[in-house]
Specification:
Layout lengths: L5 H5 L7 E2 L3 H28 L3 H26 L1 E4 L3 E6 L5 E6 L3 E7 L2 H6 L2 E7 L6 E6 L1 H20 L2
Antiparallel strand pairs: 1-2, 2-3, 3-4, 5-6, 6-7
Helix pairs in contact: 2-3
Keywords: Membrane, Transmembrane, Transmembrane helix
Protein name: PH domain-containing protein
Pfam families: bPH_2
């Protein structure tokens, strides 16, 4: 039995990882401000108007949650990477809960590129690979649009070439 360390498991030797754009962190900070900061303000105002403690407790919990998430967003984005090898695509992500997804090109069915309004405003897009098995789908968030188009076209052509050989 081979003794594999944690770094070898999620960071195979000889792989040159491509990072995603740091603008993905900006997008996540904006979403954090909207979905945690907005309710925090509402509960703080409720606490001031109602003169009771429960809205302040909720506001405090939201503030703690917001700070904790804000502390890890940058590290999470820096942990995302992808690498194109001859036969497959590797996608890694996660700080506390790490994952490494390996998708063989011959198993890919189609590749999507998407960008919502915030992502378009920040100049980023997501590439999602679909396979016959939902558990092996992979996505790469936070790519510049030109890189997302390049990755999409390259993966689609590699996938077609591998399928043709079956």
């Amino acid at each position: 039995m081979t003794d594999t360390t944690d770094s070898e498991l999620f960071d195979p030797a000889g792989i040159e990882w491509q990072p995603v754009s740091p603008r993905l962190a900006t997008a996540r900070f904006i979403l954090l401000a909207v979905f945690v900061g907005g309710p925090l303000v509402v509960f703080a105002v409720l606490g001031a108007v109602l003169s009771t403690t429960w809205p302040w407790i909720v506001a405090g919990a939201l503030a703690v949650l917001g700070v904790l998430v804000a502390l890890v967003v940058g590290r999470q984005v820096r942990s995302i990477g992808y690498a194109e090898r001859d036969e497959d695509l590797l996608v890694r992500k996660g700080v506390l809960f790490r994952s490494l997804v390996v998708v063989p090109y011959g198993r890919m069915q189609f590749v999507d590129v998407s960008a919502g309004p915030l992502a378009r405003k920040l100049g980023i897009a997501s590439v999602q690979l679909h396979t016959a098995s939902p558990s092996t789908d992979a996505n790469i968030d936070g790519l510049p649009p030109a890189e997302a188009a390049r990755v999409r076209d390259r993966l689609a052509s590699r996938g077609e070439a591998r399928l043709a050989g079956l």
